[in-house]
Write a structure and sequence with these properties.
Layout lengths: L4 H12 L4 H18 L9 H28 L3 H23 L4 H30 L27 H21 L3 H16 L3 H26 L4 H20 L1 H19 L10 H16 L3 H4 L8 H8 L1 H5 L10 H7 L25 H9 L1 H24 L3 H23 L6 H19 L2 H11 L1
Helix pairs in contact: 1-5, 1-19, 2-4, 3-4, 3-17, 4-19, 5-6, 5-7, 5-19, 6-7, 6-8, 6-18, 6-19, 8-18, 16-17, 17-18, 17-19, 17-20, 18-19
Length: 471
């Protein structure tokens, strides 16, 4: 079998949905080595957007290494943590660079996208039966009986406990498909979108639902309402979204009553945390506290961290797992780790397995975890790395925007709109989780994002648009 761009994308999607977490991390390295050894003609990147992304990735890696060496001499940053960081961040970055070099064709994107849609639908079906196996058929409520059945909604990853990651993968597919449904609300498209949303809800990752609904509202309601204000006529798509939203809210309220209570409680505690209002002995929202400590207290103690951070691997999400003991208990022996003193001081007080008690069952929830991509990059590598990382995704967003303005192909236009939504969605998820360290999520996004950027870079109309923009 010849490894064409389409075949590589198919295999990559199967890897990211596979049961081997190790293979997900190694796949980016495999792809990069394969291209360098057997597909050297792909190494010549000429496109405007592709070149920018490569430059930003290269700059990010330089800052990464500079931060380590400076922190190694400043306060003994661990070599183990450096290798761990290269393995995690490096995997996602190499996956991005490798997919950016692959010369996808426009007809490839359509086939790869539909392969991904049907693959996600299969995961929803399998995940539903996995959930029923955990909860039996006593109730369709994933939280009936007190068990977080959403954590067992894992599809072919077969890895209980990563339900939120599976929800992100399904939700990214749903967001990509949403513009196609708006353009053609056929029975087939409606059923596909319905099943994707059912899987998204049943996976029980509340923060992904809240952010996803906000992104859909932002792109399809706010924009239309602004236009309607001047035309005095509501766009018909708003009615479709309102009906779909009411159905979704009803389904969520009926199946996830405990989650409704949890959301209302979290909102009340979040407000109390920000305003400094006592919660009568209850635990405040610790993610907000984590942000405060990182953005205020950490720079006061280590002023140099604003420029160079505290060192790769010393403050990321998994640093919190390391010092709590959870990461060391579950992590395979092939990745040695050294719990960081800085993470111990700033993260252990925020989140620890010791917090999970009968008095505070919500300790493991996303609202009480010191996990965030933006915070991790800022704390570990400083402001320059954070800006560079932001520019990578800003370039993607501008590329998708250019594709929508210049293409004559309706599929590409809808696809680019879905990717714009996905980019905003991921950027917001970065505030809640450190998902960039998980190539099983980012790899799926990069496949479609890099394929779209490749089409834009090879479009004469796109070149003309960029010339006009810069002129």
């Amino acid at each position: 079998m010849r490894l064409t761009p389409k075949v590589i994308a198919y295999i990559s999607l199967l890897v990211y949905w596979g049961p081997s977490n190790l293979l997900c991390y190694l796949w980016g390295f495999f792809l990069f080595i394969f291209i360098c050894a057997f597909k050297t003609e792909w190494l010549n990147i000429k496109g405007i957007f592709s070149k920018k992304i490569v430059i930003y990735v290269g700059l990010f890696l330089c800052i990464f290494l500079l931060s380590f060496f400076l922190n190694y001499y400043a306060h003994g940053s661990s070599l183990n943590n450096l290798f761990w960081s290269i393995f995690t961040y490096g995997s996602s970055l190499l996956t991005l660079l490798s997919l950016l070099m692959i010369p996808f064709k426009q007809e490839d994107i359509k086939k790869i996208f539909m392969f991904s849609v049907y693959l996600a639908l299969f995961q929803v079906l399998l995940g539903y039966f996995q959930m029923l196996y955990v909860q039996s058929f006593t109730s369709i409520n994933p939280f009936a009986g007190g068990k977080d059945a959403g954590d067992f909604f894992v599809g072919t990853t077969f890895n209980p406990g990563i339900g939120s990651l599976v929800a992100m993968k399904i939700s990214l597919t749903a967001l990509l498909f949403f513009p196609f449904w708006i353009g053609n609300k056929s029975i087939k498209n409606s059923l596909i979108l319905l099943f994707l949303f059912i899987g998204w809800v049943l996976a029980s990752a509340l923060f992904t639902l809240i952010i996803g609904v906000f992104v859909i509202f932002l792109f399809f309601v706010v924009n239309k309402l602004i236009r309607s204000f001047f035309t005095y006529k509501l766009h018909k798509s708003i009615y479709y979204i309102i009906v779909l939203g009411l159905i979704g809210v009803t389904f969520f309220v009926f199946t996830q009553k405990n989650n409704v209570t949890y959301i209302l409680t979290s909102v009340r505690y979040a407000y109390a945390t920000v305003m400094g209002i006592p919660t009568h002995g209850k635990v405040a929202v610790r993610k907000i506290t984590y942000y405060k400590k990182t953005l205020v207290d950490l720079p006061k103690e280590y002023p140099s961290m604003l420029l160079i951070g505290v060192g790769p691997g010393n403050y990321s999400s998994r640093s919190a797992w390391m010092i709590s003991g959870e990461y060391l208990k579950n992590q395979p022996a092939y990745i040695p780790v050294t719990p960081s003193d800085i993470a111990r001081k700033y993260s252990l007080a925020i989140w620890s397995k010791k917090m999970i008690t009968t008095k505070f069952k919500g300790a493991g929830s996303i609202m009480h975890q010191p996990f965030s991509t933006w915070v991790s990059i800022f704390a570990e590598m400083g402001i320059a790395a954070l800006i560079t990382f932001y520019l990578i995704f800003r370039t993607f967003y501008k590329g998708f925007k250019t594709a929508m303005k210049t293409t004559q192909d309706l599929f590409i236009s809808n696809f680019a709109l879905g990717l714009k939504m996905s980019t905003v969605y991921i950027a917001l998820l970065f505030f809640m989780e450190n998902i960039f360290e998980y190539p099983l999520i980012m790899g799926q996004f990069f496949i479609f994002a890099c394929a779209a950027i490749n089409i834009v870079d090879n479009s004469p109309r796109a070149d003309d648009a960029n010339t006009l923009h810069h002129g």
